[in-house]
Amino acid sequence: MNKQLRKAVIAGNWKMNKTPTETAGLIGQLKSAVQNPGCEVVICTPFTSLPCAVDATKGSCLHVGAENVHFEASGAFTGEISAPMLTDLGVEYVIVGHSERRQYFAETDQTVNKRTLAALAAGLKVIVCVGESLGQREEGVTEELVRLQVKIALQGVTAEALKNVIIAYEPVWAIGTGRTATADQAQEVCAAIRRVVGELYGQPAADGLTVQYGGSMNAGNAAELLSKPDVDGGLIGGASLKADAFAAIVEAAGR
Ligand code: PEP
Fold first, then answer.
1. Ligand 1: nearest atom to the Cα of 98
2. Which entry of 92, 98, 107, 251 is annotated as an active-site residue?
3. Given Cys at both, which of 38, 105, 185, 222 links 181, Cβ 3.0 to 4.6 Å?
4. Tens digit of each residue's pLDDT (9 = 90 or more) over 64-119
5. Does residue 216 have its Cβ closer than 6 Å to ligand 1?
């Protein structure tokens, strides 16, 4: 399938950066830097910045996402945020299963699945993160591992709901390290993700799936990564905090 027919999505993951006041400032810069993009542009902010981000992006081309969500709608889960709380704010997207959540907050493939189902049920679009560690790559199990992560994350997700899922391939060794996967490595795993989704849902669904690459993507390497046939967008950490760098990646995706 022609890649141009799929939705290209560039999403910024701000991680634990920016106060609400700083958020308003950065969104102001982004609104000037990113205009008429040829792709969907999402900024995922800390929970505390979401109301401000939703407000500041109104009427612009920027969409707002959260960085995590709990799998229950409400209840005795002190400190957690549910999917209906996000949609009520006007949030459209959520990142699920980021490797930092897997590493530091005991996220498992099973909780990634539960969060994905809860987010989809509430009407959110979900960016599901998968990817191998350096050790796993060196052991030669990258494809098997990523296939497993995708299969478990999507358990119980209907073909209709899959239309609201993006899968982000994020090799753990490339996140925040400045060490990017080569465009060929990114392509190889993004294609494998599309293959497993094809096995689960059929080829048309796989052809329509947006698969992102994430891991030290920046203004200098984005064009090459995004030129690959199965890389439909990017999940951007560090470079999403600088308006010019983020805008350059958006531009590369729109070409
Ligand atoms: C991320 O946090 O998802 C990410 C890809 O970070 P960075 O771009 O900084 O590697």
1. 3
2. 98
3. 185
4. 999 999 999 999 999 999 999 999 999 999 999 999 999 999 999 999 999 999 99
5. yes
